[in-house]
């Protein structure tokens, strides 16, 4: 590819524009990409004429690995997919597996999964908005956003022992029941977080520099959004009133009172506002769920032979021991139908779906992930054309591209 | 008001219709993919292409009779919320199907990924290059005859020692 | 010279130790953050775990300004040449922390595209286990590295020549391109 040099004074000779095009490499190691992706930008002075994304710098073979790990082992790998909201991926994966097996988890498990999925949504939106703020020069906002994130990590740590990559779900249930301490931490978070959110909104919502740098930048229309398969906050910022939590209610979302947050601007600022508003709605859901948390088991009956029995039963009774071995021995385990199923949830980033092909064994024959980041990054050249070089980071931040999910 | 499947049945020769856990699926001949999807988009309101993917049925216990690779087009109507999965099959020697990029822009990268991972050519695709793997990679890793650990590509790189760095 | 002749607030040391002391307390990290560990690396620099307490908060994204590379996350075969190039652009003396199981050994990703440990291709000083490691672990790694710099580092950077310069290059476990590996079922 030839490298065109720009005139030092910036005088553009319009009769031969080719001579004045820069080709600039952006990434794969660049502070503003946040992740590993590469862009080849064609610039005319400061203006971006075209952008050619180059991805695959983090392609680690997730889907191939899914064919070699069983349904409970693979949850560890889904954590590493969208690492800003690990638990949401766990929930998505095991909902798909349970749809294939045709089992429904008990109410307490459903409520706990809703709580962790919404906590993950808040954590993801915090990171995304913090990154947009950071790229637009608002470093203080980054500090404000990462503090509640640490509180979310503390809750998840109390729930399942890992602060970041949780692997909280299992086929037909959860790893552990929530302890009273975890419930108390969640209540405390629900009490404290609105104030932090108010602070953040006061910092950035009407900040002149931030608004100037994001308003009218990277506009996506509703028709384009639908044609390009965009989902989640990005689609809702463009006026697509679609949210799988309302449209195809999974888990216990039918029981909660919450709103879908939409905007019509379709620009980076609208995407920022939608994410801010969604955090409040998520908090409403968490509040309702934690106050109405049903009692009962968190896993399905051991008779279905998908979950492990309680440890005292395994150590104390012969039936418990037999049930334990029935599940974990390599030639036993559970049987899946020879069928294919697609199941999706509203992950923080958009529609996160899994297409699973069962071949009778306890391993997926094919574990396809429908990654929202992959679909959204394809938008990028369309959004950036005609804008300036400094807008590249704002658009990239507002799309919330997570490379591990982008490349898998 | 006829259902989508009934309207499809009237207009095209479907190979199979099935349903599992409430999900409707149709199998169409490989050559007819573009026509069927165009009909679904323009006449049945399926305005969003959610996903394009593929399954390699080389070692599957119940192999479908139409070919080794099964393509999956996952459609959604944002108006009614209806979902439909369209399948088409092809074999290694005939591994090519018409591209649906003229209908949905979303198909662009998804089809490139299927080409990268399975080696299925999409006729009429504007830019069919590898997307995730390096350009000089030779195999298609999600095929069932490709080993999980690869064929040594991951270690085919130069080594830098402390003295050279 | 007798020590007793010096005034009370004067310390004496070797120049080498002084330089090492300066170096170890002003490490400038180059965050090569690819995957999940990168988020924990951000948490390390953010408010709660504040790495500024150890003098290593100046994250610079230009390799020419840094002397500590933190490789956080898995490195795949498409990324490895980039990593090597960035390592070569850094000035001596320089150190490398391999953060997390993926960077150190490949971790759970024993797949066709993931490099099974970056130490096969670039030199590494400190390995941090964990998937991902907690920020506290990374702080410990930085402390260990500081100790190593104080102990081993020299004014002339001689820790990098003898006898390491004469060491044979590390042999690869798998010979590329000659024999396909058998598929190992889990």
Describe this structure in words.
The complex is a heterotrimer of chains A (408), B (165) and C (186). Chain A has helices at residues 62-66, 74-79, 86-101, 107-135, 139-160, 180-204, 208-214, 222-227, 232-237, 244-247, 268-291, 311-316, 318-328, 372-377, 380-384, 391-399, 403-407; strands spanning 21-26, 38-44, 47-54, 169-170, 173-174, 340-347, 350-358, 364-370. Chain A has 408 residues and is an alpha+beta fold. Chain A has a single domain, classed as Cytochrome-c3 Hydrogenase, chain B (Orthogonal Bundle), CATH 1.10.645. In chain A, α4 runs antiparallel to α5 (139-160) and α6 (180-204) packs antiparallel against α11 (268-291). Chain B is an alpha/beta fold. Chain B has one domain (12-155): NADH:ubiquinone oxidoreductase Nqo5 subunit (Beta Polymerase, domain 2). Chain B is 19% helix and 25% strand. Chain B is built from three helices and seven strands; from the N terminus they run αββαββββαβ. Chain B has helices at residues 4-11, 33-43, 107-118; strands at residues 16-20, 23-27, 48-56, 69-76, 83-90, 96-98, 121-123. Chain B has a five-stranded mixed sheet, covered by helices on one side. Chain B has a two-stranded parallel ribbon with strand order 6-7. The N and C termini of chain B lie far apart (72 Å). Chain C is an alpha/beta fold. Chain C has one domain: Rossmann fold, CATH 3.40.50.12280. Chain C has five helices and four strands, in the order αβαβαβαβα. Chain C has helices at residues 15-24, 36-45, 80-89, 100-105, 135-152, and strands spanning 29-33, 68-72, 95-99, 126-128. In chain C, α1 runs antiparallel to α5 (135-152) and α2 packs across α5. Classes of the chains: A alpha+beta (408), B alpha/beta (165), C alpha/beta (186). Chains in contact: A-B, A-C, B-C.
């Amino acid at each position: 590819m030839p490298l065109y040099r720009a005139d030092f004074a910036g005088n553009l000779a319009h009769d031969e524009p080719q001579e004045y095009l820069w080709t600039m490499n952006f990434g794969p190691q660049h502070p503003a990409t946040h992740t590993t992706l590469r862009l080849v930008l064609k610039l005319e002075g400061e203006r971006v004429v075209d952008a050619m994304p180059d991805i695959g710098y983090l392609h680690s073979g997730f889907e191939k690995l899914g064919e070699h790990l069983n349904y409970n082992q693979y949850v560890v790998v889904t954590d590493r997919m969208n690492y800003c909201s690990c638990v949401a991926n766990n929930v998505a994966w095991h909902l798909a597996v349970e749809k294939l097996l045709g089992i429904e988890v008990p109410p307490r498990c459903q409520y706990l999964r809703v709580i962790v999925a919404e906590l993950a949504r808040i954590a993801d939106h915090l990171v995304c908005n913090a990154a947009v703020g950071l790229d637009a020069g608002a470093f203080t906002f980054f500090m404000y956003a990462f503090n509640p994130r640490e509180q979310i990590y503390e809750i998840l740590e109390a729930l399942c022992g890992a602060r970041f990559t949780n692997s909280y779900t299992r086929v037909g249930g959860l790893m552990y029941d929530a302890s009273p301490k975890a419930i108390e931490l969640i209540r405390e978070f629900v009490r404290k977080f609105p104030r932090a959110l108010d602070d953040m909104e006061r910092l950035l919502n009407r900040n002149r520099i931030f608004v100037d740098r994001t308003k009218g930048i990277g506009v996506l229309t509703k028709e384009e959004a639908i044609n390009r398969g965009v989902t989640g906050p990005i689609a809702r910022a463009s006026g697509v009133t679609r949210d799988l939590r309302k449209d195809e209610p999974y888990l216990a979302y039918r029981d909660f009172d919450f709103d879908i947050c939409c905007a019509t601007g379709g620009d980076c600022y609208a995407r920022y506002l939608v994410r801010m508003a969604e955090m409040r709605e998520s908090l409403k859901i968490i509040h309702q769920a934690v106050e109405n948390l049903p009692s009962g088991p968190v896993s399905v009956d051991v008779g279905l032979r998908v979950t492990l029995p309680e440890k005292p039963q395994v150590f104390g009774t012969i039936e418990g021991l037999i049930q334990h071995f029935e599940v974990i021995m390599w030639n036993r385990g559970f049987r899946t139908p020879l069928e294919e199923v697609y199941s999706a949830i509203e992950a923080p980033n958009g529609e996160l779906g899994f297409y699973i092909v069962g071949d009778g064994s306890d391993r997926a024959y094919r574990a396809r992930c429908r990654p929202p980041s992959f679909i959204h990054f394809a938008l990028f050249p369309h959004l950036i054309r005609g804008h300036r070089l400094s807008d590249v980071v704002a658009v990239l931040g507002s799309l919330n591209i997570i490379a591990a999910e982008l490349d898998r | 008001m006829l259902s989508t499947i009934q309207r499809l049945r009237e207009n095209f020769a479907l190979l199979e219709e099935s349903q599992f856990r409430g999900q409707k699926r149709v199998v169409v001949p490989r050559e007819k993919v573009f026509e069927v999807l165009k009909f679904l988009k323009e006449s049945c309101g399926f305005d969003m292409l959610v996903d394009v993917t593929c399954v390699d049925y080389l070692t599957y216990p119940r192999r479908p009779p139409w070919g080794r690779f099964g393509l999956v087009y996952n459609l959604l109507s944002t108006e009614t919320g209806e979902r439909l999965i369209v399948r088409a099959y092809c074999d290694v020697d005939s591994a090519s199907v018409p591209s649906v990029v003229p209908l949905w822009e979303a198909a662009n990268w998804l089809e490139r990924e299927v080409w990268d991972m399975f080696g299925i050519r999409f006729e009429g695709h504007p830019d069919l290059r590898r997307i995730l793997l390096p350009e000089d990679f030779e195999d298609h890793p999600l095929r069932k005859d490709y080993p999980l650990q690869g064929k040594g590509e991951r270690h085919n790189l130069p080594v830098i020692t402390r003295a050279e760095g | 010279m007798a020590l007793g002749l010096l005034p009370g607030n004067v310390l004496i040391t070797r120049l080498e130790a002084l330089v090492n002391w300066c170096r170890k307390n002003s490490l400038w990290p180059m965050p090569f953050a690819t995957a999940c560990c990168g988020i924990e690396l951000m948490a390390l620099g953010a408010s709660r775990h504040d790495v500024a307490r150890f003098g290593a908060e100046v994250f610079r994204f230009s390799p020419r300004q840094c002397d500590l590379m933190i490789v956080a996350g898995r490195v795949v075969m498409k990324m490895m040449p980039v990593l090597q190039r960035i390592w070569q652009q850094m000035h001596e003396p320089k150190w490398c922390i391999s953060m997390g199981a993926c960077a150190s050994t490949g971790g759970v990703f024993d797949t066709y595209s993931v490099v099974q440990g970056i130490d096969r291709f670039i030199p590494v000083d400190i390995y941090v286990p964990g998937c991902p490691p907690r920020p506290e672990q990374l702080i410990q790694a930085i402390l260990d590295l500081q100790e190593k710099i104080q102990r081993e580092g020299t004014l002339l950077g001689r820790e990098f020549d003898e006898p390491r310069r004469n060491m044979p290059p590390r042999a690869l476990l798998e010979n590329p391109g000659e024999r396909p590996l058998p598929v190992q079922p889990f």
